[in-house]
């Protein structure tokens, strides 16, 4: 990392900012933080020191234009996807569109539902093109694109309320090279994006990060108690005038629910998740609502 | 004034979010606070770099980390991203106590909105950028002026309340954009009325009329003679060092006379100051030595036949060694250009070698004498007095500042000493700059500080959004005892 160590903060052309974060205990290698506008990526790569440096440089080089590419097609990417909708042209936009297309039958969805995962995927692809890595993860605000070389695995933990500090693991599993999933995404009403549902968090494993991202959104929307008095909703565009969700009602607050209510809401989400599993769109999902956790049927995890 | 109920269109990035009051944009970095666009970036923590450490070393122990953000006195909470409070009398966003060698120190961190602020720019070049008092423009709007030049450098004074809020709306916006870019170490293009176009970026070489400046002059023409006269002795009969300020002539200069250099009959144009030193041999410009000439012979009158003789060898050179020519007088005592002998070439290279790299430096200047102080203490004048007496240390994003004497809290800071993107803006327009006041806890209590808002720095937990930044090695550690400037 010699070349990186010279730079305190690696400022790239334009707005985007890159900097190295303290190394993790496990790898001894620093992580790379890339930020531009609303995009924050935390990137971990393991492998030879040169390979990691090459990968980080490739990530930076690819990152510089990402936001501009997306913004160039933003109006189209904020439109609901139907077979008639025009196709975007950008690489990332195409990943987004491809991920949400099979989900459109379950309701209104725009390519923006997959934006975080698609960006993570694109950056990971650029890193792997630069050279071989043992393990790599591009984390775009909880939507993560993963790379595992043969023999490698990744331990994944799910925590509640990370914003309060402390680690309260409510679920953990290990992903190996043999697993087909390379995307991990979490959606819910506490993130930056709006949710139509009431789930605190839905974590999805899928083949790609874009698919995991879009599916997590759809499953989180399905965890719901329609017209429940304890659920406060507002039209999305009342909060964010430019929201791709228009005047759809998005969840602002949820009161304390009874166990029966939680079970009912989660059942709707699990049914959706099981359906997506059966269609082969996702690998598995964990759903979380006010301390209750459900996962997709084990039979799906063949 | 800002309309507190208005939706703001944020132009920080191409997403261009419309942000309703009280809410943040898609990035969670910019928010609409009562009609003002404010930065709500994660707090930047400066970590004292170990003397031997690399810049990005974390001081958090990885094994038995207990989840707290700040371990002790080797982490300093800066105001970058601290946000501001409105109205002013609300306590500053973070009032943080750190134990330093047994003394409880308090750092009050806030981001100040500076309606009175600007940048002072030093551009290392002798090229004429514009006359003193000429208007400096960005995107066609007046944003400042050329001020008195310094040794080897041209000086600009940009911003200030007159351009920010005292002029047209567009003028204010462009001024704010330009100040923000310069303060955040970005490049801007400036044009000077009846002068040059210059691209300025802190810590980088200036680009004057599309040409990158590489060297500062070694000194004025007279100083150059004073430095190099012995090295020319015997190799040449006359040397003229062309400079917009003072052009030096070896045979007339005290430096040449003392070495026994004989008169050559040279006659200079311009106004003679003292022997061998001439003012105004030409007009200012971007040619030889910051003058407007491209042919150096144009500053000479015919040689005086009383002293001149055929065969006299003359070197003409600029004060950066960038332009030079070698001439020999013919039988009509006219200088004729000839190829330069290698030993003279060496001396020209020596001039170039002694020139320092030309850079732009940008100092942010702001006055924190106003209501911002009310976020620190309920008796604002005591803060001013405490800063004035050096009891309270003022830092800007953890960087040392120069505090102007006299009333108020007016300070200057080298923007290169701050972490990147430390400055923000509000659409007033005004700049938002981080500012930290550090003082012993007891003194803070005595000045009427908000004691019930003091948090132990070690009690800040990971719930507070933050990022770590390395302490710049040349900056003094803000929590260490202060030495007076």
UniProtKB/TrEMBL annotation, chain B:
Domain of life: Bacteria
Name this protein carries in UniProt: 6-hydroxynicotinate reductase
């Amino acid at each position: 990392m010699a070349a990186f160590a010279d730079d305190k903060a690696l400022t790239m052309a334009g707005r985007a900012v890159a900097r190295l974060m303290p190394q993790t205990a496990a790898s001894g290698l620093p992580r790379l933080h890339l930020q531009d506008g609303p995009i924050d990526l935390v990137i971990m790569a393991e492998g030879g020191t040169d390979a990691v440096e090459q990968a980080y440089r490739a990530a930076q080089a690819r990152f510089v234009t990402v936001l501009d590419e997306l913004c160039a097609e933003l109006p189209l990417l904020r439109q609901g996807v139907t077979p008639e909708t025009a196709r975007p042209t950008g690489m990332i936009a195409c990943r987004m569109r491809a991920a949400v297309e099979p989900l459109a039958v379950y309701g209104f969805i725009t390519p923006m539902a997959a934006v975080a995962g698609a960006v993570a995927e694109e950056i990971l692809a650029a890193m792997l093109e630069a050279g071989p890595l043992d393990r790599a993860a591009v984390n775009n605000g909880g939507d993560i694109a993963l790379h595992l070389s043969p023999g490698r695995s990744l331990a994944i933990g799910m925590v509640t309320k990370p914003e309060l500090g402390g680690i309260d693991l409510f679920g953990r599993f290990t992903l190996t090279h043999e697993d087909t999933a390379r995307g991990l995404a979490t959606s819910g009403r506490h993130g930056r994006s709006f949710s139509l549902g009431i789930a605190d968090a839905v974590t999805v494993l899928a083949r790609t990060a874009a698919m995991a991202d879009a599916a997590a959104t759809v499953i989180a929307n399905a965890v719901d108690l329609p017209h429940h008095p304890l659920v406060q909703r507002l039209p999305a565009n009342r909060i964010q005038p430019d929201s791709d969700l228009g005047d759809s009602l998005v969840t602002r607050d949820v009161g304390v629910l009874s166990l029966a209510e939680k079970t009912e809401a989660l059942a709707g989400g699990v049914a959706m998740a099981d359906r997506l599993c059966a269609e082969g769109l996702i690998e598995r999902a964990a759903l979380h609502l006010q301390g209750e956790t459900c996962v997709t049927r084990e039979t799906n995890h063949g | 004034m800002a309309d507190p109920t208005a939706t703001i269109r944020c132009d920080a990035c191409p997403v261009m979010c419309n942000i309703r009051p009280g809410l943040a944009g898609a990035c969670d970095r910019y928010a609409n606070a009562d009609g003002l666009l404010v930065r709500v970036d994660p707090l930047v923590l400066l970590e004292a770099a170990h003397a031997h450490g690399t810049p990005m070393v974390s001081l958090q122990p990885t094994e038995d980390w207990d989840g707290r953000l700040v371990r002790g006195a080797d982490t300093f909470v800066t105001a970058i991203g601290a946000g501001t409070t409105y109205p002013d009398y609300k306590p500053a966003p973070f009032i943080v106590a750190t134990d330093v060698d047994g003394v409880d120190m308090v750092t009050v961190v806030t981001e100040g909105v500076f309606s009175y602020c600007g940048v002072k720019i030093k551009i290392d070049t002798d090229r004429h950028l514009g006359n003193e008092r000429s208007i400096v423009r960005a995107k066609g709007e007046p944003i400042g002026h050329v001020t008195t030049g310094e040794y080897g450098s041209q000086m600009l004074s940009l911003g200030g309340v007159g351009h920010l809020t005292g002029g047209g709306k567009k003028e204010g916006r462009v001024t704010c954009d330009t100040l923000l870019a310069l303060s955040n170490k970005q490049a801007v293009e400036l044009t000077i009325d009846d002068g040059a176009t210059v691209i300025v970026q802190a810590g980088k070489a200036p680009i004057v009329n599309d040409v990158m400046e590489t060297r500062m002059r070694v000194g004025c023409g007279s100083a150059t003679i004073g430095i190099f006269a012995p090295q020319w002795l015997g190799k040449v009969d006359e040397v003229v060092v062309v400079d917009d300020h003072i052009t030096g002539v070896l045979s007339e200069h005290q430096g040449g006379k003392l070495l026994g250099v004989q008169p050559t009959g040279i006659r200079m144009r311009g106004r003679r100051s003292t022997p061998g030193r001439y003012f105004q041999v030409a007009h200012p410009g971007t040619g030889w030595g910051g003058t407007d000439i491209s042919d150096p012979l144009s500053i000479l009158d015919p040689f005086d036949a009383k002293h001149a003789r055929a065969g006299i060898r003359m070197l003409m050179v600029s004060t950066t060694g960038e332009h030079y020519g070698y001439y020999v007088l013919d039988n009509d005592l006219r200088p004729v250009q000839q190829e330069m002998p290698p030993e003279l070439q060496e001396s020209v290279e020596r001039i170039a070698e002694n020139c320092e790299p030309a850079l732009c430096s940008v100092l942010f200047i702001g006055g924190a004498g106003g209501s911002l102080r009310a976020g620190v203490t309920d008796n604002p004048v005591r803060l001013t007095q405490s800063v004035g007496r050096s009891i309270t240390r003022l830092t800007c994003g953890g960087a040392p500042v120069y505090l102007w004497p006299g009333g108020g809290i007016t300070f200057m800071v080298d923007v290169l000493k701050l972490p990147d993107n430390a400055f923000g803006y509000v659409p007033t327009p005004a700049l938002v700059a981080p500012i930290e006041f550090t003082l012993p806890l007891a003194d803070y209590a005595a000045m009427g500080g908000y004691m019930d808002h003091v948090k132990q720095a070690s009690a800040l937990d990971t719930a507070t959004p933050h990022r770590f930044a390395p302490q710049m090695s040349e900056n003094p550690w803000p929590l260490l005892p202060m030495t007076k400037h």
